[in-house]
Write a structure and sequence with these properties.
Largest sheet: 4 strands, parallel
Pfam families: CDC50, CMS1
Strand order of the largest sheet: 2-3-1-4
Family: Belongs to the CDC50/LEM3 family.
InterPro entries: CDC50/LEM3_fam, Cms1, P-loop_NTPase
Structural class: alpha/beta
Strand content: 5-15%
Number of domains: 3
Number of helices: 22
Main location: membrane
Subcellular location: Membrane
Distance between the termini: 152 Å
């Protein structure tokens, strides 16, 4: 019954299985024999013990191997339970994003209508294309290198002109279809750069009723609409939105949400989009035959012709020509330092060591200039004579209060004296005497030349002497552009019409001798740029005088003929001009002493046409001529008088 000790039982698995089945009976037999014959032969007991120990070892070895296999099976079972199936989000997250193409849209439409359309109708959905040509009904697609605004600028370069031509209500020029309300808001923000003055409307169902959107569409002209397919379809069915003025259809094709899904990857949005494509045949059946406005698919997928809503027939347009230099890099600037903004730049280092010296130098310069100006002001004296109602001018004031008496001549005189110590100045009527020079000014109070409508009431093109504007003044001059007979006024406008027309004659009364008129320079008192650039007379020649140029005569009048205005002159053309309403003389007769100081280049007119910034102001009237008489060193001390032709109207 004993086993052969030399038998290598662990190398044979089959023997182990057989022994496992035979071990229990042998152990029981040995136990019975040991109980009955305890006092028997020791050799038999020893053999029995050796055999029992050997068999027990075999049993333990086998059991250990069996348990390890069970543990391995349990571990593999747990691993199988932990495995999860991959979702579409996981697949899209690891896959490479490919920009959409026109064939993607057609494939979507064909797969959707494969069960409901006939074979012939499905063939109409196939886009025709050749090698080297884009699809004839689509514009170039966005290859994910553009933003929405930059892409639309490339495919719609004449957007400003297109939006101005759009005047239809309940219709839009550019329709953008996207997947959600949040995406709608995002796209509207991206359109800020592109839209310009266009009106943008959001079309989605979140917190916005259909009736409110219909009212907004019919209220005025809307150029761009951005919304979801469901709301756009609802507005089309209720005729709140039409496509009569639609030029571009934009599909937000390539945008992916947080789960990496496109608009057509979401089942609900995809169904709404396909229903939107199919709703037009029920709303407008006549669209099946006529050609609809072009459409654009964006973000990225753009089409040039509208998809026929009823039978989804894609018609060809003039976009089938070969595209040359229309890719995403067609407008890329040259790789130069200037165009790529890589030019070297210098910026100052703002430290105490560099800033403080410049600050001190600038302070010293300003201090010197301030001292010079202060000394000049202290050495400049003024003497004012207010002649509004002084002495005999009070009767002229009463006369001028009546507008009907405005054409009557009123002359008054005001006397004043300069003390011995007076070396410099007088103001409003004002005399300045720096180093003996005297400047004579006239001044006004509460005369607001800074009013906007008053300042705009002039025609600078007419003042330059252009013939076309001379006889056709600007509308800004109204009501001082034409007189009652329809003749153009030159110069036109309220500024020229209110020209200061008081005249002054200054006389000096020396202690011994008779009075002497103070000579004044009446020319050279205007700015050089005004005199030589901004104001010009109409062109004249030896046979065509300044009067003829302004009155538009075809031939000069006889020498004996009296002066008349254009309205009554028998040989004056209809295209002539006349004087302003409040003037007593024409513009070509402003200076009777100097013919070269007449017309638009008259110094008094030029000085008046430069408006003052404040209601109280003074303007230069003349400069003392120190080449004559006792005025070589300025105005001497003594008595003076001013003879005034009082012409100003008073309210």
């Amino acid at each position: 019954m004993a086993d052969d000790l030399g038998d290598e039982w662990w190398a044979n698995d089959n023997n182990l299985e057989v022994e496992e089945n035979t071990e229990p009976p042998e152990e029981e037999a040995q136990a019975v024999q040991t109980t009955k014959k305890r006092k028997g032969e020791k050799q038999i007991q020893d053999d029995t013990k050796k055999k029992k120990g050997k068999k027990t070892a075999k049993k333990e070895c086998f059991i250990t191997q069996e348990r390890s296999e069970e543990k391995a099976d349990e571990a593999s079972g747990k691993n199988k339970k932990r495995r999860k199936k991959k979702t579409i989000t996981d697949v899209l997250a690891t896959s490479e994003h490919v920009p959409g193409s026109p064939s993607d849209l057609v494939s979507l439409l064909k797969s959707h209508y494969s069960q409901t359309r006939s074979v012939i109708e499905q063939e109409e959905l196939t886009l025709k294309g050749q090698a080297g040509y884009v699809y004839s009904c689509f514009l170039c697609s966005n290859d994910l290198t553009h933003s929405l605004s930059s892409y639309l600028k490339e495919v719609c370069p004449k957007w400003a002109k297109v939006q101005k031509q759009h005047t239809e209500s309940r219709s839009v020029v550019l329709l953008v279809v996207c997947g959600s309300a949040l995406r709608t808001i995002d796209l509207i923000k991206q359109l800020v750069v592109f839209k310009g003055q266009a009106k943008v409307l959001k079309l989605f169902a979140k917190h916005i009723k259909v009736e409110e959107q219909i009212k907004s569409l019919s209220k005025g002209v809307t150029h761009i609409a951005v919304g979801t397919p469901a709301r756009i379809r609802t507005l089309l069915e209720k005729e709140g939105l039409t496509v009569q003025g639609l030029r571009y259809l934009v599909l937000d094709w390539n945008h992916r949400d947080q789960k990496h899904r496109r608009m057509v990857d979401i089942p609900e949005v995809k169904d709404d989009f396909l229903k939107l494509m199919d709703c037009g045949s029920k709303v407008h059946p006549h669209w099946k035959l006529g050609k609809l406005p072009p459409a654009v698919q964006n973000n990225y997928l753009i089409t040039q012709t509208w998809i026929f809503w009823g039978d989804l027939n894609l018609r060809e347009s003039n976009m089938g020509k070969k595209q040359a230099a229309t890719g995403p890099l067609s407008r890329r600037p040259d790789n130069s330092a200037f165009k790529q903004q890589r030019l070297p730049a210098w910026s100052p280092s703002l430290t105490a060591q560099t800033v403080l010296p410049s600050f001190y130098i600038l302070s010293a310069v300003c201090l010197v200039l301030g001292i010079c100006l202060l000394v000049t002001v202290e050495n400049t004296h003024q003497f004012k004579v207010d002649y509004t109602d002084a002495e005999t001018c009070d009767r002229c004031l009463e006369l001028r209060k009546d507008v009907t008496q405005s054409k009557k001549i009123c002359i008054c005189e005001v006397r004043f004296s300069l003390p011995q110590t007076f070396k410099l100045s007088v103001h409003a009527v004002v005399f300045h005497l720096p180093q003996g020079d005297v400047f004579f000014y006239y001044g006004l109070r509460n005369f607001h030349q800074n009013l906007r409508r008053y300042m705009d009431s002039r025609d600078d093109a007419q003042m330059v002497g252009r013939k076309s504007y001379l006889r056709a003044p600007s509308s800004y001059c109204a009501p001082f552009d034409y007189n009652a007979n329809g003749t153009a006024i030159a110069p036109c406008g309220a500024v020229a019409n209110s020209l200061f027309n008081d005249t002054f004659i200054i006389k000096h009364y020396p202690t011994n001798g008779r009075n002497v008129e103070v000579p004044l320079y009446r020319k050279g008192i205007a700015w050089y740029t005004d005199k030589n650039v901004k104001f010009r007379n109409p062109p004249t020649n030896n046979t065509f005088s300044l009067r003829q140029a302004f009155e538009g005569m075809t031939q000069p009048p006889p020498a004996f003929e009296p002066k008349v205005v254009l309205a009554s002159h028998p040989r004056a053309s209809v295209s002539g001009t006349t004087r302003p309403l409040y003037w007593q003389r024409s513009v070509y007769e402003l200076d009777s002493t100097d013919p070269n100081n007449n017309g638009f280049i008259n110094d008094d007119l030029i000085v008046w046409m430069r408006e003052a910034a404040f209601p109280d102001f003074k303007k230069l009237y003349g400069v003392l001529n120190r080449a004559q008489g006792p005025f070589t060193e300025g105005l001497p001390a003594g008595s003076y008088s001013i003879l005034i032709n009082y012409s100003i109207l008073c309210s």
